[in-house]
Structure prediction request, 650 residues.
Amino acid sequence: IKVRFIQDPTSVPFPVAPDTVWGIGGIITGFDTFPTGFGFYIQNSQGGPYSGVDVFTGGTNYQPLPAYPGGLQRGDSVMVYGRMDEFGGLTELRGFNTSGFNDPLPGVRRISQGNTLPKFKIGTMAELQELPTNLSAEQWEGTLVRERTRLRVARTSLQNSGLGTFSSFLAVLTTCTGPGACDSLFIDGSTLANPALTPPPVGAIVDSVQGIYGQANRGYRIQIRDGADIFDSQPPGLTDAFSISSDSVRCVFDRNLTQASASNRTNYSLFSTFAPPDAAVPQLTNNVPNNIVHLKVTNGLAPCDSENITVNGVVNAQNNQAMTIPATRGFRNGICPLASIQAPDPAALAASPCDDRSRYAYPGGTPGTRITTQGVCTLSYGSNYWIETAAGGTRSGIVLFAPSTALIVGRQYVIAGAEQEFFNEGELVGTVYIKDQGAVAVPTPITQTIAVLRDTTCDASQAYLNGEDYEGVLVKTIDGRCTSTGGTPGQGFFLADKNPANPDTIYVDNNVVRTFTPQKYHYYTVTGVMDLSFGTWHLQPRNNADIVENVALSADEGLPASISFAVGPNPSHKPRVTFALPQRQRVRIAVYDLAGRRQAVLADGEYPAGTNHVDWGGTGPDGVAVKAGMYFYRMTIGDKTFNRQAVLLN
Prediction:
């Protein structure tokens, strides 16, 4: 069915949320690059009302996904298979279904590339103004729109947080004069624009603005995709700077630049040398300079050292306005090794209380300055990806939260983001650059004991190994004894040292879907990534193969060779029923009086291998104490029944 059928309430058919809709086709017009809320918009090629819709992809950014060469891009024709939903008034497709498809992207099939985008709807202030009561707006939701009338900036997110998004502004017609109310356009420069657009100052004139029309709790808005979607009198703004190699720095602006100004190295200055870089190389889109410039630098700094870049004089390609006020961005130099990022801050170790945390993250869980590192992807689930230095070693791994590109296990990446401490676990967030360097062998797991891995003590002197030394690292612990299980296939379980006297245990998590079900008291060698979950160390196996039973040790554990069943002491005021199982089995135990009437059910469910027990308090089905005397105990396991009798005392 077409987009119109799910957007136009007068269409037949007209599915409603949460109906499943298969084969919704359209041309990709833009991408939502906000982490954990990724998505893209599609629109029918002919354009018009009710022709666009949001495709929500959650924690995965489909734009650079390597499943298709180059990922998905604007102009790709795709088919989407999923369900309808409504979020903040915005109709979207999500919950993709992959049944019967062998496509590399879940629920999305690319048909062709390089298609012409649908025509913009040339709207008026009355048609596109932001109020949710705007009856003309709904038909343009998810479509490309353009406002060509000159506008004046009335309010920006820089001065007023009440707009609800950063890098956004409200604009009114230039013919509007206060103090009376004027209709306004909401211009969202943060949701689709990457980098986010710096809003023009209050009072600035905008000649034209365009983008994808959306809806949120506040109302309707024009979502700018990049600096080319706004025609104003502003100069470029420097929005980001970070290393992409040992001698290259990437500068990102909120407007496209002219070739001459972007390549003029004297427009840039390094803090370390108080001099321009060796060269400035504008990046191109369709042979035209865009908003990115790569600087070649020789600064003599070591990896991870602080560096700043100051920019002035670069020119907006749309209006020839040049920067006249210098802008500076700080970052960490070169490719910072993961071992350096995960190394503890000496000042934090010496503090009271001791805190083993990275020096590159700000206190209070705030991300630090831009930092660039390199590692091999070892594990992924949901929005989390782990990378580790190819050579392995302690302090050599870290987790990435919601990176801008989905990583593939077994491939090495250069990644720029920021380090933060999330409930004491170091992680990279806000990734702005990911370069795939190809297939690289996953590091060999480090063998370590459970006692060391589960140790959460802060080692102020760094004199011994503990869990922090293996955070984010692929490890192996040999012949651990399963002490407790979830009881169902694929559940997590606790693993202890094979010496029963050792109380140290570690939780083997099940975030990665698997079917392996451990048996209590059996012995397992477990490989996985070390993950600190709200102050407790977990092992994250990658698959079923990461859990291997030591059958010989399990057999020597002394598990019963056959089923046993006993009641004691006899007689007793509070009898205990003890039963032993050679393997996990379903057990039902009931108590009957001399007349054969059931008085209690003591067990009805699965029990692990080994010795188990249940107690009877001497009460009947009504909760009232039964009379003293002889009672019969019946245990049923499969097609086998076991009977015992015992005297209950008052």
Summary: The mean pLDDT is 91. The helical segments are 3-7, 125-128, 259-262, 338-342, 346-350, 450-453, 551-556.
